[in-house]
Amino acid sequence: MKEDYREELKKFKTRFSLVLESTKTCVFEVELKHRNYTFFENSNEIFGRTGDEILRDLKEFEHLQGRKRYEAITGYFFHPQDYENIEKADQEVLKGKSYSYQARMKHKSGFYTWCKVDVFPVLEEDVPVRMIGVITNIDSLKKENLKLKEKIYFDNFLRIYTKEYSLRMIEKTLETMPFQFHALIIMDMDNFKDVNDTYGHSEGDRVLLETAAQLKERFRTTDIVGRFGGDEFIILMCNIPDIECVRKKLEGILYESRVKHGVTKSAGVSVFPGDGTRLDQLFTRADKALYAAKKEKNTYCFYSDIMAEEEPVV
Questions:
Q1: What separation, in Å, do the N-terminal and C-terminal C-alpha atoms of the chain show?
Q2: What is this structure's pTM?
Q3: Average pLDDT for residues 17-21, to the nearest whole number?
Q4: How far apart, in Å, are the Cα atoms of 107 and each of 4, 58, 70?
Q5: pLDDT at 193 (0 to 100)
Q6: Residue ranges of domains in the chain
Q7: How far apart are CA 33 and CA 97, in angstroms?
Q8: Rounded CA gap, 268 and 259, in Å?
Q9: Pick the CATH number of 154-310 from 3.30.70.270, 3.40.30.10, 3.40.50.2300, 1.10.260.40
Q10: How far is CA 229 from the centre of its chain?
């Protein structure tokens, strides 16, 4: 009877291993009180290490206490930018709840693999004492999704945000940062049609690429830079200290001698919240300022400047 039991157990483990291998899945267990990892199965798939290797590596952190030990173990397994997800999962498990999240897991060779992690608490007398985790390799699926998102979010040619995504991001910024100052800029290329007519569309494309690259370089990563139309761009400078910083930024961009064939740029600016608290208001007023700038070309204009000029003299 005992031999039959051992044989069945062996068969079960073989089947279990085959399922994990075929689904690119790793299973692990953690003792929660001291955060001791006690078990790994099919860890090679994710980490390039056997379970025994991982458990041996983790022994190096046993002398650490508290937060230092937690951070050392987290750094062993995860990408630094995903730590917030791991902490959230741990908090939920300690409440006795299951949790699922996505994170990049660190392979032995140094690269990271996108994974889906499902964690489940094991309770004793209603107290979570252990955590069972299931790690599934979703790297190819995740990267494919990121490519699809790029097609939606980015202009395929200029590699800046599309019009639709830019507007969505701007609206979200205005909603989530209502107590800061922001500057909405609509920028248009002067004499661009002449380039296409004189030098051909391939040269026009080159000028567009140079302009997009310039805008990406000159504006901050926290700003939103998108293509609004053929040769028109929309930018939101987020959380600006004052209007003067916008003036300096535009002066540097407009007067750089980086575009060819006499093409210059004009820009209209409206400021949140003074010129409007909604995107449609800001856009209409920045567009009006752009119209004024286009009369002169190679310059910029603030909506507030137009309003000051239109105020009647008393």
A1: 107
A2: 0.55
A3: 70
A4: 39, 15, 19
A5: 83
A6: 2-143, 154-310
A7: 16
A8: 19
A9: 3.30.70.270
A10: 24
CA separation for the pair 279, 174 (Å, rounded): 8
Q: CB under 8 Å, gap of 24 or more: what pairs does 256-261 form?
A: 256/214, 258/210, 258/214, 259/189, 259/207, 259/210, 259/211, 259/214, 260/195, 260/203, 260/206, 260/207, 260/210, 261/191, 261/194, 261/195, 261/198, 261/199, 261/203, 261/207
Of the pLDDT bands very low, low, confident and very high (cuts 50, 70, 90), residue 16 is: low
Q: Do strands 182-190 and 232-237 pair parallel, antiparallel, or not at all (unpaired)?
A: antiparallel
For domain 2-143, which CATH number applies: 3.40.120.10, 3.30.450.20, 3.30.750.24, 3.40.50.2300?
3.30.450.20
Joined together, the tokens standing for residue 148 give 């699809």
The pLDDT of 137-161, averaged and rounded, is 81
Cβ-based neighbours of 285, under 8 Å, separated by 6 or more: 270, 275, 276, 303
Tokens 């990563």 belong to residue: 221
**What's the pLDDT band for 314 if we cut at 50, 70, 90?**
very low
Q: Name residue 173's amino acid.
A: T
Contacts of 212 (CB under 8 A, 6+ apart): 155, 158, 159, 160, 227, 233
Half-sphere exposure of 196 (CA within 13 A, CB side): 10
Q: Please tell me whether the peptide bond between 273 and the residue prior to it is cis, using omega within 30 degrees of 0.
A: yes
